[in-house]
Amino acid sequence: KNRSGKKFGIAYTNLSNFTKQVITVGPESRGKDEHKITLRYKIFTPITLNVTYYVGNKLLASEGFTAKNYFIPYFTIEPKITVLKSSVFRTSVYYQYTESNNTESTELLESHELTFDMRYNVVAKSTISAKFSYVNIRFDGIEESPVGYAMLEGLNNGNNILWNVSIDRKLSQLLQLNVSYEGRKTGESSITHVGRLQMRAIF
């Protein structure tokens, strides 16, 4: 549901995705259920404040490997400031606080994230996007476990820094070029760099 006006808006979204498969040791179910409420308030042109609240849970239930079962309730609060200059330039800064725990065991997580992103449209043919995130995680549990992977979502205990830059350029009516670079420094691990070059044909 979405109710909005020029000054104020509110939106609600529910995501529910569960799967079940039968393997040799018995059935296994996993999934996620999430409720999301976003409040939008236009402070003044061109600045908008969004506050989003997420609440939900993640589930893994296996009859054959009960040691890896988990049920993880969580909630997230995310205030976000966006500056929009027509359709040419947009930048956002947001803070995200998350708490989660595994009710099947003792794992706990607390996360603080600060993110800056921007998008700039150059004339009508190119778009430049950039994003930088700092995430501090306090996780009590074993990181290299099924519940650890589910709660950490690819990050590590401690300080995590992630950044990316991408350029999209329309070469012709049929061809579009994308160049992107991603970097990350998670916990005590080394810095990872990933570059991509993609050409798309549009018909």
Describe the protein's architecture and organization.
- The protein has one helix spanning 146-152; strands at 2-4, 8-23, 26-44, 47-62, 70-85, 89-101, 108-122, 126-140, 158-170, 175-186, 192-201.
- An eleven-stranded antiparallel β-sheet has the order 1-2-3-4-5-6-7-8-9-10-11.
- The two termini are 34 Å apart.
- The protein is mainly beta and 203 residues long.
- The model has no long low-confidence stretch (mean pLDDT 91).
- Helix content is 3%, strand content 73%.
Order of helices and strands: EEEEEEEEHEEE
What is the share of helical residues? Answer: under 10%
Tell me the fraction of residues in β-strands, as a range.
Answer: over 45%
Shape: globular
The oligomeric state is single chain
Span between termini: 34 Å
Largest sheet: 11 strands, antiparallel
Number of strands: 11
Low-pLDDT runs of 5+ residues are: none
Taking strands numbered 1, 2, ... along the chain, how are they ordered across the largest sheet? 1-2-3-4-5-6-7-8-9-10-11
Structural class: mainly beta
Query: How many whole angstroms does the radius of gyration measure?
Result: 20 Å
Average of per-residue pLDDT values: 91
What count of helical segments does DSSP give? 1
